[in-house]
Specification:
With 98 residues, this protein is mostly helical. It has four helices and no strands.
Length: 98
């Protein structure tokens, strides 16, 4: 049974949809870059380029999410909840979506 308290966890926020869209589109973009810009000839070279770039994207994305999470936690500890900095960091954390 779904009630009001569990429907919050099931619904997808726009932040999650943006993140999923980026994750789905990036390999196609990296394929185009490897094939046309880097002028890779073999399929294995193209795949190696895609995997390398996608790995670096995932590493950077996870570090940014961790940093925003820590900023949000520390801002909630040291800054009053009605301050503008806290609201901005919370917005940043929601947009990046860890």
């Amino acid at each position: 049974m779904l009630d009001a308290s569990t429907s919050h966890y099931i619904s997808l926020s726009p932040c999650v949809l943006y993140s999923l869209t980026i994750i789905l589109i990036l390999p196609n973009i990296f394929y185009g870059v490897a094939l046309h810009y880097e002028d890779r000839k073999t399929s294995s070279d193209v795949q190696k380029s895609i995997i390398g770039r996608y790995f670096y994207y995932q590493v950077i994305h996870s570090h940014i999410c961790d940093l925003c999470c820590l900023c949000t936690i520390f801002s909630n500890i040291f800054v009053p909840p009605n301050a503008k900095a806290c609201q901005y960091l919370h917005h940043c954390y929601c947009w990046i979506n860890s």
